[in-house]
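[step 3/7] fold_predict: job queued, chain A
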Amino acid sequence: MDARLTAEQDEIRRTLRELLHKRCGPGELRAALDTPAGHDPALWTALADRLGLPGLALPEAYGGVGCSVTELALACEETGRVLAPSPLLATAVLAAPLLLALGTDAQRADLLPRIASGALTAALAVPGPALAAALALTGHDRHGAWAGGGRAGGVQARQADGGWRLYGEAGQVLDGHSAGLLLVGAHAGGFARSRVLLFLVRADADGLTRVRQTALDATRPQARIQLREVKGELLGREGDDVLAALARLGDTVAVCLAAEAVGAAGRVLERTVEYVGQREQFGRPVGSFQAVKHRLADAYVQVQAARSAAYYAAWAGAADGEKAGGLALAQALEALRGAAAEGIQLHGGIGFTWEHDMHLYFKRAAGDELLFGPVHRLRARAADAAHVFEEAGR
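[step 4/7] structure written:
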């Protein structure tokens, strides 16, 4: 393994960091959170026009850049540093790979170029708090019970008038209130032919209601989606193995989330070190006290270990398909939570205020654990996949 970044990867990081430094400072971040969309559309347009960020990992045939998950993870690390509220995770990490993997030729040709250009945003909608289960991050659901299982609840799909109709509700849909296209996971076939399918639902579809929800992490906007006999277009074909496609996507999502969390943790640590070097107590900088040095050193080691794990998971997934994203995500979320907690403490009284940004980083760690974790279940799933406990018991 060559751990060095290529010239192209360095350029992606440098250019993106410069752009976000100019366009996504603390003031711009707060302003974007208060908009109906929860992000700045002008920033998203700039990311698309200057860097091709929405199509970074899409093939050139569809207007993308043609990079791998490694470059996408590096981009997520930079957006994580500033907690940039954007449709990147929902559109480029969650939705676009599913369109590429499952879509028909016509669907790909219609949707992917618009996503790559930034003109179309998309969101993956699964019922209830089941995103981690759907992506097989915290367990392997071989029957897709998260989609409703043929019982009341979830989202149900039935054939009618030569097409499909969807009925039900999906909560905690990332960017679901603002996305131009929804990929809705639904249960179809009742008990006799039970299966999970994905459907394309346009933002202006009749019977569709989308409401932005108050979320713990305001930088990660979420919505509740309600469908009442909404017309949906089947993504791909009925025989496609949707559950397997979602499970394959799960590792890529975990890698990008891990890199994002590492970027946030690194930035928290930088800001905390800078602050304790300036703040004085008893006539000397707080950072000169040995106890503070020890705490920051521990946080630094944790962040660097998480960065190494995230980079390895990105490289391994792109090189030989090894799935290490779940473990990397668990380590990165722990590092972010620890660094943010130390940042709040070591910033003293100001660190506890609403006006300071430290609480946003802590909420990012907690919010990601609620959506994609928790950490102990991520590790348990990785151990099960590696048959750790089976080997130990022999």
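[step 5/7] annotate
The longest helix spans residues 242-278.
The two ends are 32 Å apart (CA to CA).
exit 0
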